[in-house]
Amino acid sequence: MSILKVTRLGHPVLRQVTEEIAITELRSAAMQKLIDDMVETMNEYDGVGLAADQVFTCKQVAVLEVADNPRYPQKPKVPLTVLVNPKITALTDEMEEDWEGCLSIPDLRGRVPRYKSIRVQALDRDGQALDFIAENFHARVIQHEVDHLNGKVYLDRMRDLSTLTFLQEFTRYWLRS
Ligand SMILES: [Zn+2]
Q1: Cα–Cα distance between 78 and 45 in angstroms, integer?
Q2: What is the distance in A from the centroid of ligand 1 to the CA of 91?
Q3: What is the per-residue pLDDT across 71-92, written as a single tens digit (0 to 9) for each?
């Protein structure tokens, strides 16, 4: 496995809409290696999710996992999940605003509204169908990653940029509130 370079905001690939992955392609050694490398890269940089376009691959695959993560302490755990060709449907109009960061937008945080409850339909890395409901932080992470696959970043979803803050100032001024 290898740790991949992560694209930063401004690279055009982050703004491209990624392509669906055919089942034969998904099962190829190259795609399986990409998924392994994405998991390793996410763990290396303490991310809770990573989309393929963040590692220069314009395909609809994202990985996510929330364990004991120093970038997101005290968040509920989410097992390692690989989402291929994911589709999400909001199950409520209710949105919740909370902090997000992004490995492609280093050192920044901002408050982003997201649906509290979503239905997720996707394939796993073996091509098996996944269909589940995600809520709260879990739903937030998936909405963030699916946005990446559609060429969007969390800044696009902020109601305004008044909460955009560097990580050091986040810790200093916002964490305690
Ligand atoms: Zn991101």
Answers
A1: 17
A2: 23
A3: 777 788 999 999 999 999 999 9
Q: Are 120 and 130 in contact (CB under 8 A)?
A: yes
Range list of H helices, 27-105: 29-44
* Helix residue ranges, H only, the chain: 23-26, 29-44, 136-149, 154-157, 167-169
- The rounded distance, in Å, linking the Cα atoms of 148 and 162 is 22
> Does residue 145 carry a catalytic annotation?
yes
The tokens describing 117, both together, are 């409850």
Say how many Å lie between the CA of residue 42 and the centre of ligand 1: 11
What predicted TM-score, i.e. pTM, was given to this entire model?
0.95
Q: Which residues pair with 61 in a beta bridge?
A: 84
Q: Rounded to the nearest 5 degrees, what angle is found at the Cα of 84, between the Cα atoms of 50 and 91?
A: 90
Catalytic residue among 20, 40, 96, 145: 145
Residue 157 burial (10 A CB sphere; 0-12, 13-18, 19+)? middle
> 151 CA to middle of ligand 1, Å?
11
Quote the CA–CA distance of 83 and 88 in Å, as a whole number.
11
